[in-house]
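Notes from the 1:1 (GR / supervisor)

We went over the backlog. Supervisor wanted to see one worked example end to end before approving the batch request, so GR pasted a single chain during the call. The sequence is below; no edits were made to it. Supervisor asked that the structure be written out right there so they could see what the output format looks like.
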Amino acid sequence: MSQPPSAEPTLWELHRTLQQLREDQGDGLRQLRDDLRNDIIVLADRLEEVVTKDVYQADQRLVNQRLKALEEEQRTRANNRKWLVSAFVAPLLLVIVQLWLASRV
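Structure output shown during the call:
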């Protein structure tokens, strides 16, 4: 079956359709370009906040040094408490033993 001549698009309609397609593609490309620019800006902002590996490692070493110093101080204080308790308890025990022995005689 052949179509009547009025069913075929005119040159003007073809031109207008092609022009509309180009505008749609242009809008899509502009939107894509704008989206990419925004993504790059967001990525650049995130990269400014990122810490370099060297800085991170230096910070971790500092944290480890502080932790070791705190643990050493904790051990020292525990030893000091032991000495302090034994310095008071030992003489007290000796006095009690001497009194007990003196009371037996």
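Supervisor's comment: The two ends are 140 Å apart (CA to CA).
Batch request approved.
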